[in-house]
Amino acid sequence: QVQLVESGGGLVQPGGSLRLSCVSSGSILSIYDMGWYRQAPGKQRELVAVIISGGGTNYADSVKGRFAISKDNDKNTVYLQMNSLKPEDTAVYYCNAQRTGIGGTRSYWGQGTQVTVSS
């Protein structure tokens, strides 16, 4: 069983920055695709950014040029650097680990960390 623990959320003013971290309980980053998702009140959870096991990245259009996802395999940690934050970025941010193999798809979620962008 994989456990993911997010940290780094908080209250920030518009235009500010935050860095989220997600630590996994095992050395999975080299074989799992890691993603950051967010869910705002009354809205569905949406993908923000993903970094695949090989290192390639992809972003939601709404965060391109402002957010950057990265990982440190040795530290079992995935990061989400968020710059130029906007009020519409306010949400609970969740870390996800996913791997699809012969036996099916395994997906794990963290507990989430709140990000609030407000003046």
Shape label: globular
Cα-based radius of gyration, to the nearest Å: 14 Å
Instruction: Outline the low-pLDDT stretches.
Output: none
Describe the biggest sheet?
7 strands, mixed
Range of strand content: over 45%
Which structural category do the helix and sheet elements fall into? mainly beta
- The separation of the N and C termini measures 40 Å
| Total helical segments | 0
How much helicity do the residues have? under 10%
Q: Give the oligomeric state.
A: single chain
Order of helices and strands: EEEEEEEEEEE
Task: Please characterize this protein's 3D structure.
The protein is mostly beta strands and 119 residues long. It is 0% helix and 54% strand. The strands form two sheets. Strands 2, 4, 5, 6, 9, 10 and 11 form a seven-stranded mixed beta sheet that branches. Strands 1-3-8-7 form a four-stranded antiparallel beta sheet, with no helix packed on it.
Summarize the structure.
With 119 residues, the protein is an all-beta fold. The protein has no helices and eleven strands. A hairpin with a 2-residue loop joins β9 and β10.
